[in-house]
Design brief:
repeat; mainly alpha; 2 strands; two-stranded antiparallel sheet; calcium; coiled coil; 57% helix; metal-binding
């Protein structure tokens, strides 16, 4: 197993370092340590305690027990303030619909299917170029944040008219016209709203709450009608 081999290598290095510390200074001599091509050289000067810590950390990683590192929480509503809540929800629904792997990303094959569904199929190279344009972390796939960047750049008129990303934004049936964006092209032209951004945001939240209340009332009415019909059959 890879973890066992790694443990043996680090334990060997740990033993060699401890032996070197126990010798008198006059008797100390360099201890030859076998170096594998895939092993980093940065641990050669570590103390035994540091090596032990690294050994335990590496074994935990291999066994899947390492504590997860802190990650920055992404809030699309605060980072993409140029879009309304409804626009972002529409984009999220579209993203999830084509994230068939349910891993939170749209990979190259999923993007291929998305573009075919939109009626704008792309070549393999074209798909890779689409991802590369907004792939900020260079992982070769689209996160939801990178997906939103497509619509931000489209709304700002930063995409070429014939590019695959522009085709995606234009054919997605999501109106991403934004307020305060100068020079936006075609249907991305900026619109002037009477309400401020904050009041508009609050109004959308109220509408969502009212919609949920309406759905709850309709659900209760359907349940009551069903019980009434059921009791009529049983009587």
């Amino acid at each position: 197993m890879a973890s066992e081999e790694l443990a043996k290598k680090l334990q060997s290095r740990l033993a060699a370092a401890e032996e070197a510390e126990q010798r008198p200074e006059t008797e100390q001599s360099p201890v030859p340590v076998p170096v594998q091509s895939q092993e980093p050289e940065q641990g050669c000067g570590d103390t035994p305690s540091e090596l032990a810590t690294k050994l335990n950390r590496r074994l935990d990683i291999n066994d899947g027990n390492a504590p997860s590192r802190a990650t920055r929480v992404f809030n699309p509503y605060t980072e993409f303030k140029e879009f309304s809540r409804k626009q972002i929800k529409d984009m999220e629904a579209m993203f999830k619909r084509f994230d068939t792997g349910r891993d939170g990303f749209i990979d190259l094959m999923e993007l291929k299917i998305l573009m075919e569904k939109l009626g704008a199929p792309q070549t393999h190279l074209g798909l890779k170029n689409m991802i590369r344009e907004v792939d900020e972390d260079f992982d070769g796939k689209l996160s939801f944040r990178e997906f939103l960047l497509i619509f931000r750049r489209a709304a700002a008129g930063e995409l070429e008219e014939e590019s695959g990303l522009m085709a995606l934004a234009r054919l997605s049936e999501i109106n991403v016209s934004t307020e305060g964006v100068m020079g936006a092209k075609d249907f991305f032209e900026a619109k002037v709203q009477a309400l401020s951004q904050s009041s508009k945001f609050e109004a959308e939240i109220r509408e969502e709450k009212e919609e949920r209340k309406k759905q709850e009332v309709e659900k209760k009415e359907r349940q009551a009608a069903f019980k009434q019909l059921q009791s009529a059959f049983c009587s």
